[in-house]
Structures are given as structure tokens and as C-alpha cells.
Design goal:
Blueprint lengths: L4 E8 L9 E10 L2 E9 L8 H7 L3 H4 L5 H12 L4 E3 L2 H13 L8 E4 H8 L8 H8 L9 H19 L10 E2 L12 H14 L12 H12 L5
Parallel strand pairs: 1-4, 4-5
Antiparallel strand pairs: 1-2, 2-3, 5-6
Helix pairs in contact: 5-7, 6-7, 8-9
GO cellular component, one term: cytosol
GO molecular function, one term: 3'-5' exonuclease activity
Keywords: Exonuclease, Hydrolase, Nuclease
């Protein structure tokens, strides 16, 4: 069992690191089996936090309104991580958001990690759900505020220790850190059809928006179109 590592978790505005944003980072630094330091901070996104995300996490737009931007928070988080091995539940999801934000600032974030979800899928094939909540219930791990980043990170650390206690001797390879690989997808330009549709939406809905048809990407155009259709831009 690792005695030194970073367990971390994020809350985000959605599921895609190329389109959505980090709204909270929570992490604990373990040294020689003890929590040495903690990282807990909100990040203020450019987009509104949707009611779906608020219902899931309890994080509202008011709660993040005074927070720093994600780029500033991520820079400090990279310093906090040093060169440690990362532990997370579906760790590549959280890693991908941090890496995309780091790359956007010309920073690197290359790490090894251990995924408690991957371990659970192997050793608990009979369990219908391998979510962090389900596994915490199974092992009687108390998570005082599920879907808040620091508390989920702490629960993940406890889950890792529990799984290692029961299964590392039988399945040592599962508990070996592996290189975390996430390649950021290249942005493609918006299609002429998207640009034409967006222009009509802006004109017909009286939307005030600064944008450049020459440089707007496909993902940016899709997000703006969705916002206008859902009444999110005026």
C-alpha cells in the first residue's frame, strides 16, 4: 500500500474537459500514511452552473462568484501535487480537466496514478454499482458531504486503503501506479452550417454577443447555440 500520495476530486460544470470547467478542487496530501496537508478551493467558471449540477453538488453560482478563475486555482493545485502519485475514483476524468487547464497555460501535468474505480471493477464484479457512494456504503466509509470535492477525495483515500487491505496481496498489479494518459482533442473550426444557424439565432433572438465567424470552433459554436436555444444568452 502506498504511504505517500495525493487523493483528489473535482466538481465541474459538465463532463467534457474541452468544453466544461472546474468549479471545485479538493485534495489531501498523504505522507507516511497520515494527512499532511489539504487543498480545498472553489473556482469561478465563465459559464453559469446549471441547476442539474447544483442539485448534484450543492454548489451554486453565488458560492463561486467570489472565487478565483480555474487557471489560478489549477496553478496552485499543480504546486500542491508536486511529483506525487495521484489517486482518484475514475481518476482519468479529474486528471483530464486539470491537464486541459494546465495545457491552456503552457504548463505540463504528467503524473502516475491509481484508479479505485478500476480496482473495484476487478474485485467487485458482482456489485451492480461501483460508484464511490455505493462502495462507501458497502465498506461503511462515512462521507459527510458526497459530491463535494474534498469530502469525496477523503472518501477515495479511505476506499483505496480499504481495498488495498483486502485485495493488494491477491491482485498486486491492480495497485501499481500507471502513467495517466489523456490527449487533448484538437479543436476544429465551426462548419458553415453552424455559423449560418448561429447568425440567424443571434438575429432572431436579439442576442448581444462578441464572436468571430473566422475563428470560432465547432465546440464553442455548439455551446453558444445551446445557450441561446435554452434561453441562457440575452
Amino acid at each position: 500500500m502506498l504511504r505517500s500520495y495525493i487523493a483528489f476530486d473535482l466538481e465541474t460544470t459538465g463532463l467534457r474537459p474541452d468544453q466544461n470547467e472546474i468549479i471545485e478542487i479538493g485534495a489531501l496530501k498523504v505522507r507516511d500514511g497520515r494527512v499532511q496537508d489539504r487543498f480545498m478551493e472553489f473556482a469561478c467558471p465563465k459559464e453559469e452552473i446549471s441547476p442539474v449540477i447544483t442539485n448534484l453538488t450543492g454548489i451554486t453560482n453565488d458560492m463561486v462568484s467570489g472565487a478565483r478563475c480555474s487557471k489560478d486555482v489549477v496553478r496552485d493545485f499543480l504546486d500542491f501535487c508536486e511529483e506525487d502519485i495521484l489517486i482518484g475514483h475514475n481518476v482519468i476524468f479529474d486528471y483530464s480537466f486539470v491537464k486541459v487547464c494546465a495545457l491552456s497555460q503552457g504548463l505540463t501535468f504528467e503524473r502516475e496514478g491509481i484508479d479505485t474505480l478500476k480496482i473495484a471493477r476487478k474485485v467487485h464484479k458482482d456489485m451492480e454499482s461501483k460508484s464511490l457512494g455505493s462502495l462507501c456504503n458497502y465498506y461503511h466509509i462515512d462521507n459527510q458531504a458526497a459530491h463535494r470535492a474534498y469530502h469525496d477525495a477523503l472518501a477515495t483515500a479511505k476506499l483505496y486503503q480499504t481495498l488495498a487491505h483486502y485485495f493488494e496481496e491477491k491482485e498486486p498489479k491492480l495497485f501499481q501506479p500507471v502513467t495517466l494518459n489523456y490527449k487533448q482533442k484538437k479543436e476544429t473550426a465551426a462548419t458553415p452550417k453552424q455559423i449560418g444557424f448561429l447568425k440567424r439565432l443571434i438575429r432572431n433572438n436579439g442576442v448581444t454577443l462578441e464572436w468571430d465567424p473566422e475563428t470560432i470552433t465547432k465546440s464553442e459554436a455548439s455551446r453558444i447555440i445551446d445557450d441561446i436555444l435554452n434561453g441562457g444568452r440575452k
